[in-house]
Amino acid sequence: MTDPKINRLNPLPALIFSSRWLQLPLYLGLIVAQGVYVFQFVKELVHLVQDATTLTEQGIMLIVLGLIDVVMISNLLVMVIVGGYETFVSRLRLEGHPDQPEWLSHVNASVLKVKLAMAIIGISSIHLLKTFIGAGSLGLPLCGTPDAFAAAQAAAQATANGVANATARCSELTSEGVMWQSLIHFLFIISAIGIAWTDKLMSTTVAKPGKNAH
Question: Measuring CA to CA, how many Å separate 69 from each of 28, 121, 146?
């Protein structure tokens, strides 16, 4: 039998160790954020269904990518909530549960960082793909600028004069913005590789603690 005195902490260590429960409101807040993303997903899905007959193929693709983006962010939230709580607060005791995540059985701070880095790369990839789809509008006046307003006025005047297909178009992207977004995505990939490589080096060092002992 285990002596209960062995696991009994002095008051100060017990207070410090119990401070981990201060993170509980943070994880509960992330659950609320998860609910907000569910609402956002339903709203975008309703928009897609209602406007399916009027949307262009590109418009449908952008909305679907937005839905995928919401799902991936939700997956990231689940990893942070479940993995973070299990690692830093308290055990969930899911051993034997049929829905226990496969990765949770061997999760630790290093594994969680790698998985989060990979999830962030996936989210960044979705945003970059949406940017590339809209890159065809590069060179048009930037939306919200005086040039875009002048183009809209010219299109309205042309329509009033009977010119067909006189629609004003503007761009929400700039060449510099696309370049920076691509560069940031590349830096995310480099960071993830660095985190995974560091984790591998640390795992190798821990696995061979007595290699240089003699």
Answer: 22, 11, 32
